[in-house]
Amino acid sequence: MRDYLLRPAAYEELHELLGNPGQEFGQKVPNQRAPDHEFLSKNDQIQLLRESFLLQMVRDEWPNLPVVRERLQQLGLAPLAADDLRLQCAAVEVRMPAEIMSDRQERRNLLNLAFHKLCRETSSDWKGIYPFADAADSAMMYFLVILKPGAEHARKTRRFIEQLNRSIASELKLECVSGIGGEVKGLKRLKNGYTSCMLSWSLSSSGKKADECCSDLELSQAFTPEIERKLKRAVENPDMHGLRQQLDIMLNNGRDTTVFTFLALRLVLLLASIAKKFELGSSSLQRYVWNSRMSIVHAGSPEGVRSLLDELAQLVMEEVKKVRFSDGWHLIEAVRKYAGENFCCRLELSSLAELFYLNEADLPRQFKQHVGITFSDYITKLRITKAEQLLQQNELKAGDIPRLAGYSGFGSFSTAFKKYSGISPKEYRERFVQGRAARGC
After folding, report:
1. Which residues of 265-284 are buried (b: 16+ CB within 10 A; e: fewer)?
2. Mean pLDDT throughout 193-215?
3. Rounded distance, CA 87 to CA 79, Å?
4. For residues 330 and 325, what is the distance between their CA atoms, to the nearest angstrom?
5. Residue 253: its pLDDT value, please?
6. pLDDT score, position 210
7. What kind of architecture, by CATH, is found in domain 329-438?
8. What burial class does residue 400 get, using C-beta atoms within 10 Å of its C-beta: 0-12 exposed, 13-18 middle, 19+ buried?
9. Which residues form the HTH araC/xylS-type domain (predicted)?
10. Domain boundaries, the chain
11. Predicted structure pTM score
């Protein structure tokens, strides 16, 4: 699905499927958007890697902050790694008319494709706005917006969203629902900003007024790193009594309704990340937990929210029990899965042992017994496989590929590549190009 969403839009086909919505759409899009078609086709791998990592940053558990900053640098997203970072998160959902929703899937796919492409093109005209999508929810697009002091930057996120909504209405003839989160300072508070953005979007989806939700001070005081650690420890141990005690403190009756809902959604985000970490062979639980956010907004009472949070926590704890307290191999498989999703980052066995409650001294032996190769060889295999995919994109510079595949420099990358593949990166690309030419591709 992600590859499909990143392909250049087939606007002639889209124009036909839309049923000729107007001469302006038919003429304006091909003429004005054609240069970006070429740009995206050359850089779809880089764009995919960037968007995938941004989604991981807001949804998943991080290895640690220095590793995240290092990966942002590798992906050409250095402004997001700045120490003085101030940002907002925004979400936009495109709404399909009933006649399109009842039409064939191909038409909806093309409209979602055009929506994503228009979001990326619009954000590319603004400095410091980074789009990303979730393939499981193709009607949504998210944005990280870097904020700077000065009058020219005032209401930057709001102005961008207003421009984007106008473009979607003009070019796609569709309506949108959007949400803008509160301003946050630093990467450590990114998930608070993302959660407040989802709260704003949820309120807008319900027809309620949704101004930019909550200040950074309000959010950071309501959900501190210490609170998150205690909640995480209770769920992963699993300790329902301890979790309920923490929720009693966090969700006390004196909370403002908006802050209360924010805290509930922030816990949903935490539960979804834990579900992803421990769920094996399926993603149904994490999807169920994440999709419960609208139920939180519509719960109607604090008691209803608490009941739903209890249900979600129980489900996640059951999954944790199956993995943590089984024969041990399930936990090593969870480590392997986590490494497979984060191999481009700098991963250390000590961090993984702590993350999954394993003995650091035993983990190397257990991993090799389960996977068949050492942890370092497994990471190398994944990185070289990714590098081979990138080398097949002939437009990418060879010097860019090491950092995209998770290497700090070309020397270490070239040595590892030749050891694993038997040839140099340059030879691999040349052979691939020759083979494609021989096949007439």
Report:
1. bbbbbbbbbbbbbbbeeeee
2. 79
3. 11
4. 9
5. 63
6. 59
7. Orthogonal Bundle (1.10)
8. middle
9. 333-431
10. 2-222, 240-325, 329-438
11. 0.86
